[in-house]
Amino acid sequence: MLLPMGLLLLAAARFVPGFADLYYDTFYKYIGGLFGSITGLFPFSLMEFAIASVVFLAFYWIIGLCRKSDEGTKAVLKYFRSVLMSIASIACTVIFLFSAFCGTNYYRESFAEKTGLEVKKSSSGELYELCAFLLEEAAESGAQLYRGEDNITVFDEKNFSMANEAKAEFEKFAAGYDFMSIGFWKFGTPKPVICSEIMAYLQISGVFSPYTFEANICTAGPDFLRGATMMHEQSHLRGFMNEAEANFIAWLACSKSDSAYFRYSGNCLALLYSMNALYSADYEKWYELRLQYPDYIDADMRAQNAYIDAHDTKVAEVSDSVNDTYLKLNDQQDGVRSYGKMVDLLLAYRRSL
Q1: Residues 257, 194: Cα–Cα separation, whole Å
Q2: pLDDT at residue 180 is higher than 50
Q3: Rounded to whole angstroms, what are the CA distances from 30 to 34, 235, 238?
């Protein structure tokens, strides 16, 4: 029954106007808030533990199949049939839980619609002004931070300290929007992943787990963008699944933070996307601003590029392709290119001020 129920939920969210938001307000907000608060009590990633359990289960089945081979063909076929039924049951459960705790949120009213932001085409002049503003903001907050070797930003506490601060800062931000109120004491606290190096080779900086209501964070790579990544994944927990909107919400939450580190992290994230857009729209204006980067911003950007290049493998290409397909299946038709829409949201927000 779980498979048709899950598919029915997705169909209703996609084709029945208003269903996704009604479902969020009457079910997800409370059930997700409760479960997310419970899983938030654990200081480690339950998603990571679950993946390890699945790997262990696969080995257990393989060993069991080998042992049954001594009992003859009938015993092997019976055991194999049992394993297939177990896999089918697990798959149906996974699909249902994805639909109930994540999939419907792809069809909710967007953050821009809820806040009245008017997203439209903008001139290269507006884009230049946005980039100049973000550069100024990043320079101001970045000048206050501790720096290590090669002038690279270093968060001088451990990742769990950053996670607790990110949780507190996002809560303050979300309090200003009624539609983002969800959860209890420990809901949404980002969790640094132990096997972060594996995530690094998959080119994944963070991932929201709808099965454990966790914001899982890769701890590999430069520190300066990790704060914005934590905000990004927390926005997914609040039901905003579009990647461009999650990036925009991350910037907005960071920009309103009292912490110089989080303001710097959010503005650097926005600066990366906006400068890439300006590079394509007006190279001369891009070059003009690029020459104005302070040494510490330049050092962080170079460190990020070096980190990406070092982990740019065939595995990363496969991961990117899988992510692209996943986004398209969930009605983000631009696939990974939807990340570029963050710039339109930044411009819309600037116009609204």
Answers
A1: 27
A2: yes
A3: 6, 16, 11
Q: Are 222 and 309 in contact (CB under 8 A)?
A: no
pLDDT at 79 over 90: no
Q: What is the DSSP letter of 107?
A: G
Alpha helix stretches (DSSP H) within the chain: 2-15, 19-23, 29-39, 46-68, 73-101, 111-115, 124-142, 159-174, 196-201, 226-237, 243-255, 260-281, 283-290, 295-310, 314-329, 342-352
Nearest-angstrom CA–CA distance, 250 and 244: 10
How high is the pLDDT of residue 338? Answer: 33
What is the spatial distance between Cα 210 and Cα 46, in angstroms, rounded to a whole number? 11
Contacts of 243 (CB under 8 A, 6+ apart): 327, 332, 336, 338, 339
Place of tokens 């392709």: 321
Q: Specify whether the CB–CB gap between 10 and 163 falls below 8 A.
A: no
277 vs 271: CA distance, rounded Å: 10
Is the Cβ–Cβ distance between 250 and 235 less than 8 Å? yes
Residue-wise pLDDT for 25-59, tens only, equals 999 999 988 998 899 888 889 999 999 998 999 99
- Domain spans of the chain? 2-107, 114-352
Which structure tokens are listed for 10? 């997705």
Q: How many residues does the chain have?
A: 353
SS3 call for 147: strand
**DSSP character at residue 290:** H
**Which comes out higher in pLDDT, residue 322 or 113?**
113
